[in-house]
Amino acid sequence: MKYFIRSFLYTFLMLFLISLISFGAIHLAPNSFMGGELNPNMTPESIAQLRAIYGLDKPLLQQYMDWIVNLLTLNFGISFVSGAQVSDVVADRLPVTLWMNAVALVVTFVISLWMGIKGAMSYGQKTDKVLNQISLLSFAMPSYYLALVAMMVLSVTLGWFPIAGMHSLEPPEGIGYYLDMAWHLTLPIAVMIFVGIGSLALYIRSLVIEILKSDYIYFARARGIDERKIIRYYILPNLLPPIVTMLGLSLPGLIGGSVILESIFGIEGMGQLFYLSAMSRDYPVIMGILMMSAFLTLIGNQIADAVLLKLNPFVRR
Questions:
Q1: CA distance 237 to 48
Q2: How many CB atoms neighbour CB 28 within 10 A?
Q3: Quick check: helix, strand or coil at residue 78?
């Protein structure tokens, strides 16, 4: 109980500090949506009217307090651009980002786990060198560059995948519509998987190499235990704590999405929403996404720590 109370207080304090810093940084940014810089046709009267409607004519401290009160009731405000509730805008964009990143996250972890263990078990051999080069290529490859190359080769030249967008069929009904959407999302998900496996595979490989140097691995091999059993009963249990930690840190990515890839492929997800909101200075949407990402980051850390208490007895001590 002490642990959970301490975790709750830590999460609450961090959310307060993040909200304070984010709110101040957003309002210090130049070219405000209500300042007329983005739309020179706005008259001073219309600017003053809009500022009064959205409460931007109040002192900055009063604006922050009002925003915090609304945030406690899950009211993220009204979008400057669309005039809709921020929660409705986010709910409209969230499903596609959630599914894309969930699929990419699961496949990335599975492939990285296999590559890391396989490379470490065949350390110094040809298999390890090939997997290591693939991991280094993935680690060094910028996502936007790979996305553009894949789009040029697979979409423009070969015509295997759509260039951009989420679907070509209307109306949104029937299994054909969802198969068409899956076809549109295959290429961006593949790019997300490839650029994500590199660092994780190298990290898992280094962990497994250290585990293989342990005394209990030497004793297990001296007893003639099969390599598959060594991986299952000796290596994987020792890999669980760092993997759980990384899964907890990956939780915000399920909601935040990829700003670059969603913008390149024209996917109407959370990443593209954040980019468009930043370009148009849509403060309520930006702050809503920032706070949701911060909350998920903190919750992911707390969940990972709670799971580690069960997995690792040394952490409990």
A1: 62
A2: 8
A3: strand
CA-wise closest residue to 283 among 43, 50, 15: 50
What would the 3-class secondary structure string for 203-232 be? HHHHHHHHHHCCHHHHHHHHCCCCHHHHHH
Cα(first)–Cα(last) distance of the chain, in Å?
Answer: 16
Among 276, 261, 266, 293, which Cα is nearest to 141's? Answer: 261
Q: Is the preceding omega at residue 172 within 30 degrees of 0, hence cis?
A: no
CA-CA-CA-CA torsion sign (94, 92, 25, 22): negative
Q: Mention every residue, 6+ apart, whose C-beta is less than 8 A from residue 218.
A: none
Q: By three-state DSSP, how is residue 85 classified?
A: strand
- Report pLDDT for 300: 75
At 277-308, the pLDDT tens digits run: 888 778 888 888 888 888 877 887 777 777 77
Q: How far apart are CA 298 and CA 303, in angstroms?
A: 9
Dihedral sign for Cα 171, 172, 176, 178, please.
positive
What is the arithmetic mean of pLDDT over 172-200? Answer: 83
Q: What whole-number distance in Å separates Cα of residue 196 and Cα of residue 105? A: 8
Q: Once rounded to an integer, what is the mean pLDDT over residues 52-57?
A: 71
Helices (H), the chain: 2-28, 44-53, 60-72, 86-121, 126-140, 143-150, 175-212, 215-222, 227-230, 236-256, 259-264, 270-279, 283-311, 313-316
